[in-house]
Fold this protein.
Amino acid sequence: MANGWLIGVMVELADEPVALRHFFAVGHADRAKAEWRAIDSALLIGKVASSPVGGLEPVHAVAELSAKTIGALALKPAEVRALGWRWPRRWITLEPRSAE
């Protein structure tokens, strides 16, 4: 089970021709709640896209965050951390999943 999620939200900005994907780390185990928390934070930046942009859904759970990653990068439970527009490679672990 995930301890957090990396969520991408497509945000429309006035000075950009198309919506840009903004990444958020959300310290919530439930994926749907994590997506809604990311949307709430994205609304502070701009309008969330209402339809897919360039084949990307407006809200997308990119990856589960492992407990090791959350601990190493100090994400608190229920915290939403804006990570910016660039691909957040530090937040995605490549460690193998254990069979649960």
